[in-house]
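DATA CLASS: polypeptide
GOAL: derive structure tokens

***
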Amino acid sequence: MRIKRGSVVLMAVLYALGTCTMWLIYTMSPRELIPEPSSGAGFEVVTVRLEVGEPEEEGVLLLEGYGQPHLTYRMWCTVEAAALRHPDLPVTLFMTSPVIRQSPLLLDLTTRFSNLRIFHLNLTQAFHGSRLEGWYTRRKWEDSQWPLSHLTDGIRWLLLWKYGGVYLDLDALVLRSLAHLPNCAARESERYVAAGVLKFTRAHPLLRACLNHFARHFNGHVWGANGPELLTQVWTGASLRPSSKVSGYHHPSPTSLLPRGLVGLAAICPGRPRPGE
């Protein structure tokens, strides 16, 4: 049976359109998939005011630091996986927004996982009395080319220092529990230690060194300077006094936390720039 050339072309076009449609559905956030309410839209967006709370120590920490009142579907997958894989640990999602948008996903996850808590993070209270208080009160992140990203970097080091445990970026999907790991971080390449998946005990000396480096050498001109590059410099001892004793931590091979040795989370989650870009 001969297939006409026109039919082949039509099938190829339909396949391409279908692929593009599926890609758009996968990558769009709820804000893009669901239109904002307007006059006559027929529905109302309901938000819930979040409690300001303190997590239990040595749990799992997640952070939405961009002030958004909602999460994307991919972020919710990260939250769900964290709670599912760590049933015996408190899992805390901090949001810098004081409210969160009510949704079936939110209701489902908070109902299914008794170990999941969602708190508003009051930044003034969080930074008060810390090594980064001066940096925060001077609003140094506003001079950055990536202000909210670099603000989130500072919050990350502060939360892990104060509470300890596992820290996960909201684009890091956990396939198994990380509770058994010692103090560690992933390696995103032979050059950089990653800052998106971390596990450290509370007030660990390495975290103190990270806070000190952040306060002294904050760099708003390089995207990864205050995350993976900072951690890499501290890890190799560039920011530690010779008398400092920072021990009891290691970094697994890339295949332990990043599949197939991929170069960073940028390869898993397209659109995230690599350090230096």
